[in-house]
Amino acid sequence: MDVSRVAESIQSMKVQGAKEIALYSLKFLRKFCKKYGFGLKFEVAAMILERARPTAVVLHNCLEILKKKKSVKTIDYLIKRLETSTKRVARIGSKLIGNGHTIMTHCHSGEALSVLKNAWKKGKKFRVFATITEPLEQGVKTAKELSKIGIPVTLITDNSVSYFMKDVDCVVVGTDAIRVVEPKGVVNKIGTKNLALAAAREKKPFIVVGNTLKIDKRKKLVIEERPAEEIYAEIFSKINTKKIKVRNPAFDLVEFDLVSYLVNEKGIFTPKEFMKRFG
User: Suppose 70 and one of 9, 38, 143, 203 were both cysteines; which one would form an S-S bond, judging by CB atoms 3.0 to 4.6 Å apart?
Assistant: First the structure.
């Protein structure tokens, strides 16, 4: 598989999730660099991969580390770091899940789900509200994954989060980037801020799960906009796009004042504690 096909798999969301994109890219680069080395071809391949999904920061951070120490050993280190961090995050984050809790989540996050799965395996009993997560309905994947191991799940529309928020004990979501420079806050799937605002209104803890490679110190935040065709093809086909403009941002920013806790492989932090340690 060449780099253009790898990038296409990322852009088309056959591979999704910041950590998963990084792992997929690193495993490709491991084979690529064994064949071509770390010269110009590597630089071009790295640029193509990073541009495939510009908002998520994990791959960017991994590539920055790799460019400073170009070796297959560095790639192996990064892959292992990403894989082991999820286990640590799951163990640490599950402490925030209470027995009998009702939890709301959004989209499909491997790290957020690892927290819930770990808590369940430890014997904690709880139920989950999972948003459908429009327009690609990644929340359906979350619901299936949780129900497969026995967790009671209720699938809800994105528009109903405020309606159900009064019934939950906390919100648990993943993140694609944690901005410690302006604009500061947590970047996640579009609609996450709606959950954060509803949680704040109902005084419910808003918990964000993401390893330290998701810390974003890039000068500029680029919010990716996806193809208009993703917004319900049957509706899209009925409108004249020459007269009606369609926009489909993939992410939004949740400011730190709406976040209760950030969980990573180092521990559980309030936004103030997080900025003091990682900012």
Answer: 38
Residue type, 155: L
pLDDT at 239: 64
Q: Are 146 and 153 in contact (CB under 8 A)?
A: yes
Those residues with Cβ within 8 angstroms of residue 12's Cβ, 6 or more apart along the chain or in another chain: none
CA dist 69 and 221 (Å) reads: 26
Least confident of 120-129, 140-149, 177-186, 223-232: 223-232
CA distance 130 to 140: 8
Distance from C-alpha of 137 to C-alpha of 107, rounded to nearest angstrom: 8
CB-CB contact of 253 with 183 (8 Å):
yes
What is the per-residue pLDDT for 16? 86
Q: Which amino acid is at 249?
A: P
Query: In this structure, which topology does domain 98-278 adopt according to CATH?
Result: Rossmann fold (3.40.50)
Question: What whole-number distance in Å separates Cα of residue 21 and Cα of residue 49?
Answer: 9
CATH topology of domain 3-88: Four Helix Bundle (Hemerythrin (Met), subunit A) (1.20.120)
Q: Domain spans of the chain? A: 3-88, 98-278
Q: Each residue of 190-242: pLDDT tens digit?
A: 999 999 999 999 999 999 999 999 999 999 999 999 988 888 666 666 666 66
pLDDT higher than 80, residue 261 = yes
Bridge partners of residue 269, in order along the sequence: 262
Task: Give the integer Cα–Cα distance in Å for 167 and 221.
Answer: 34
Annotated catalytic sites, by residue?
Answer: 107, 176
Residue 111 and residue 209 in contact, taking contact as beta carbons nearer than 8 Å: yes
